[in-house]
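Sample pair:
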Amino acid sequence: MLDKKMQKYAEDLLYAMRPQEPVMAVEFKSYTVAEVAKILHTNTDRVYALIKSGELPSIKIGVTRIRHDVLLAFLMQHESNNTNGGMNQ
């Protein structure tokens, strides 16, 4: 009986010492400049201008991308601050 307890202890110890699964990167939705232009009903030049001005933060990993949460925040900010009905001026 002691042997079974020792074996169980050893198995539990080995299980606890096993290599851990790699931590997966957090996935997030992002859009290309063309996709954002379509969402905003504007053109890519306007989106690039918003990025260049710092109004619309972006990341560049191969291509320029805008995170979903950043785009939502941008839209909410302009929705509450914009009284003239549009961005394209």
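The first strand starts at residue 30 and ends at 32.
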